[in-house]
């Protein structure tokens, strides 16, 4: 049955993690996989999550099935977090999914079912799994111009010019905030222009927001999405609790559909449930039960928001320290982009040869393509990273 299979491609990020783990050098630094780390280099369990988990263990009375849509209280809370007080709110229907990955796939399946032959436009570059997920659902994928590798900022004019040519068979996949991998986000004016173009051209906006609260704040990071939600007739959203609740392995996320009417959204949700039934049937409960408890309890929610804000400040603080460290060591402002980018990642423009030298000579692990995980650094790593980057000619 399987003898004719070719060797599968290794996931470049996960294989880098293995190589890092096996490296015996004590000074090694992992800038690869996208997890947040605190100043001790640990990806912590958030305090509100731990409190909720203890209470859940003591009070939960059954592990019986929940339902195809998962925890409806969780679904409402996730919709509130993104869409409260927008025009879209009353038309939105949400379904709990295994992470944002599950949401991406379910929404892709929904689009393929509802609009066979649709083309999904993703940014160049984009999250490494966007193309595989969309293609696995049978959708055609094309790329829109996004990042200017010279300025290390988004080329918003070129991006918008391309979006002007989209039509009703097209889906525009946007990163809600903290663009992965580049760290470059679009301005609120561009979100407004995209909302206008949605009306003019009839494409479907699809927002993937996996880092709400890791950029400029919980509400601030949803500002662009909320511009769309106030204006466009239809919208789909994939959201995640992996980063902002630190629930990575619990696989907690949601797919939200905003149709032209609440009835349309409910129909779409029903189809997602049907498609989920044929794949994983039901999402795992634990993470969503914790999030639901946290978001529906004032004290726990306040505690979570406080800790999230401090993680956010830490990331932006590390960005500032990189800017200062590079300015001092290189006598130039060419690394200032670290301070302009938002979220966990920045694309550095490092060549494959420089990435290899960083690994071989400096025990610093960077994924191919040159993305670095700023949120994986600790303060004491910064001088070593600055020195090594300059030594390889960055
Ligand atoms: N979308 C983007 C943009 C991501 O970076 C990621 C990975 N963190 C995901 C979706 C998938 O997230 P999850 O772990 O919740 O499935």
Automatic annotation (TrEMBL):
Q: Which GO terms describe its biological process?
A: L-phenylalanine biosynthetic process from chorismate via phenylpyruvate
**Which UniProt keywords are present, listed alphabetically?**
Aminotransferase, Pyridoxal phosphate, Transferase
The Gene Ontology CC terms held by the record are: cytosol
Could you tell me which InterPro entries the record lists for this protein? Aminotransferase_I/II_large (IPR004839), Asp_trans (IPR000796), PyrdxlP-dep_Trfase (IPR015424), PyrdxlP-dep_Trfase_major (IPR015421), PyrdxlP-dep_Trfase_small (IPR015422)
Q: Where is the Aminotransferase class I/classII large domain?
A: 27-389
Q: Which cofactor does it need?
A: pyridoxal 5'-phosphate
Gene Ontology molecular function, alphabetical: identical protein binding; L-aspartate:2-oxoglutarate aminotransferase activity; L-tyrosine-2-oxoglutarate transaminase activity; pyridoxal phosphate binding
Assembly, per entry: Homodimer.
Family label? Belongs to the class-I pyridoxal-phosphate-dependent aminotransferase family.
What protein does this entry describe? Aromatic amino acid aminotransferase
Organism field:
Saccharospirillum salsuginis
